[in-house]
Design brief:
Elements lengths: L2 H56 L6 H15 L2 E10 L2 E9 L10 E9 L7
Antiparallel strand pairs: 1-2, 2-3
């Protein structure tokens, strides 16, 4: 084997290891970003489910609001949503439930807060 061939083979190995040294962190960041996106989307789904459940239960009457909030808190807890806030507003013939919480993301760069709303019309009770 000539010295030129030996030199060429060793340079190829250096070039490949340099490529992997640059590519591997990018691939890992991409995978981590995809996992974080999945966690965030799941948290949005949980917040929407909480809002819908609270709205459905609260629509039965004002006396059910405490029970509705309790059920919503349990759903959020089981779904992994953190620092949950449930706001219920019954005004103008409609019921608006807003649920806010934090997604358990790895690196929170501003997208960790999720907010979802559910709006239902309030039934009017008429007395005979």
């Amino acid at each position: 084997m000539s010295p030129a061939c030996a030199r060429e083979g060793s340079q190829r190995g250096v070039a490949e290891s340099t490529q992997w040294a640059l590519l591997l962190p990018l691939l890992l960041a991409l995978v981590l970003g995809l996992v974080q996106l999945g966690v965030w989307l799941h948290s949005r789904s949980v917040a929407a489910q909480v809002a819908a459940a609270v709205a459905d239960l609260r629509a039965t009457g004002p006396s059910a609001e405490a029970d509705a909030r309790e059920v919503g808190g349990r759903i959020a807890d089981q779904g992994g949503l953190e620092q949950v806030s449930i706001d219920v507003i019954a005004d103008g013939g409609r019921l608006v439930v807003t649920v806010s919480g934090r997604a358990p993301v790895f690196f929170d760069v501003g997208q960790g807060l999720v907010t979802e709303r559910a709006v239902l019309p309030l039934e009017r009770v008429t007395s005979p």
